[in-house]
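Cont'd.
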Amino acid sequence: MNFLSELREGLLIAWDSLRANKLRSALTTLGIVIGIVTVTLMGTALAGLNAAFIKSISAIGTDVLFVAPWAWFSDEPWWKTRNRRPILLADARALIRQATFARATSIDVNRLATVRYRDRSASGVLVNGTTEGGVEVGGLVLKEGRFLSAAEVDGGRPVCVVGADLAASFFPFESPLGKKVRIEGSNLEIVGVLEKRGKFLGMQSLDNQVLVPVTKLVSDLIAYRPPVMVRIKVRDLKELDEAREEIRGIMRKIRRLAPGEPDDFAINEQGAFIKTFERMNTVLAGAGLFITSLSLFVGGIGIMNIMFVTVAERTREIGIRKAIGAKRRAILTQFLIEAAMICLLGGLIGLAIAYPITLVMDRFMPAVLSASLVGIALLVSVATGVIAGFLPAWRASKMNPVDALRAE
Amino acid sequence: MPLIRLQDIWRSYQMAAETVHALRGVSLSIERGEYVAIMGPSGSGKSTMMNLLGCLDTPTSGTYELNGTDVSHMDDNELAEIRNREIGFVFQTFNLLARATALRNVELPMVYAGVTADERREKAMAALTAVGLADRVDHQPNELSGGQRQRVAVARALVNTPSILLADEPTGNLDSKTGVEILALFDQLASRGNTIIVVTHEEKVALHARRVVRILDGNIASDERVNRP
C-alpha cells in the first residue's frame, strides 16, 4: 500500500519533471530512440530473413542432390574453380542412367527470357528447361492440366507449363491450357499451370516462371550448348550419403578424372544452404547485438549523466521530501521511475519511427515487426533506464537531509 | 512523561584537524502543548538543536526521547518515519515543491505515510481551509504571496497531526505585517493545544512563546517561562 502510493507519486513527479524539461528530456531520450530503432530494425530484419529462409528452403527439399560444376557455398578461391568444365546434356543423361539411388531426376537449364502472348509480354521470366522428373524433384503441384511428359522431353516438343502469376497475368479470364506463348521465337503450347508457391528468399518469385522441355530449350532457345544441372531426389533420406558417393563415382568416371585428381564438380544439397544460412544468421545477429548494445550503452550514459544533473538540481527537493518523511526507498524509486520513464518514452518514439521503416523494408525484403519484438524493445528501454538511473538515484537516496535542505 | 526529553546531548563535528562541539551537554524537557522559542545568536548551536529536535540529525552522545521513544540511535529510514509521524516542519524559506500545487504540497507527507488518495485530498483540503487558503488550493507556490506560501507550509506541517510543529525562523523571509499574521496563526494553533517549537533570533517572535530557551556557545544559558494573559 505504502509502496503503491510512493510509486504513484514517483510517476507523477517524473511526468511533471519531464514536462518541465521538455527539450532536455527530448535530447536525452534521443540516444534511447536510436537504440530502440536499431533493436527493432535488426530484430525485424533477422526475423524476416529467417521466416523467408524457412519458407524458401522447404521448396528445395531435404532429399534432393544438385549436381553442378560449382558448389553453392565454398571456401575454395574462385580462381581455382573458374575453369571447371560445364556439365553437358549428354553427361547428365549418362549420370541419370547410372544413378541407382534416385527416385526421381531432372536435368535443368535456367535462363531469363521474355514471354509474349498476343500483345502482352513479360520480361525477366525464369525459363526452366527441365525433364519429366522435374515435377517430383521440385515438389511441384499442378492446378490445371498436366506436367511435361517423357515423350515431349525426348522429342523436344514445343510445350510448356506456366507458373501461377504468369498464368494469372496473361490469362485473367480464360484457361491458359492450349494457348500458345512465344518465347524467343518459338511458340509453345501451354499444357499445365502450377499452383502458387511464393517467393524464394523473398526475392525471386517462383510463380513467374515457365517450364519447358530441356531439350527444346537447348535446341532452339539457346544458340550454344549450355551447361546443365542435374537434380536427383533420393529414394530414402537415410541413403543420402550413399547416393552422394555413388554420384561422385559416376561423375568422376564421366569426366574422366584420374585417381588423385580433385573433383571438378560439386554435389549440393539443402543442408549446405541451412549451414551457411545459420552461420550468416549468427554473424548478423552478433553484429546486430553489438551495434544495438553499443547504441543503448551510449544512450544509457546520456541518461545517467542527465540523471546526475537532475539529482544535483533537485537536492533541495530531496531534502524537503526527506524532512517530511520520505524514506530512502521512496527517493530511489522516484528517480528510477524518472529515468525509466525517459527511456520508455524513448522506446515508444523509437517504435513509432521504426514501424514505418519496417513497412518500407518489407517491399525489398521480408520484414515483420512482431508483438514480441515490440515487447522486447520496451522492456529493453525500461531496463536501460533502471540500470543507467540507478547510480544517480542511489546517490539521491543517500543524501543527508540537513545538507540537502541547505543546498541552494 | 514529557513529550521531548534531551539528556546530556553533545553534537560534535569534525572540521579538518579540530573537533567543533556545536552542543555541549544540553538537557531539556518539553511538555505536550507547550509553545517554546529557542533563541540564540548565529553560531550558538541553535540550528544544530533544531536539526536534532526535528530528527534530521542524531546526537554524537546523549539520549533524545521523543514521545517515549529513544530516537538518538535510529538509522535514516527510522528517522524518516519518525519525522513523518511526529514532526511538522515550517522553514524560513518555506521549502515548498515549486512545481506542485498547494494541495499537492500539503498532500506530500501523507503520500509517504501511505494514506489513500481520497483521504489525502480530503485532509489536505481541510488543512488548507484551516489556514485560510481554501481558495488557493490549485495555485503553485510562485503564484502565492510569501505569507500564503508560509501558510501552505504550516498546513503541510500539520496535516499528519504531528506531535510537534517545529518552525525555523518562520518569519525570516516575510515582511513584518505578514510575519505578524503568521505568528497570530501560531498563537491560534498553540491555544488549540499544539506543541510548537520556534527557533529564532528575533525577540519579536520569541515574545509570542510561553517559554524561551536561550542557547549560547552550545549550552542552555537560560530557560524562562513567560506568563501571558
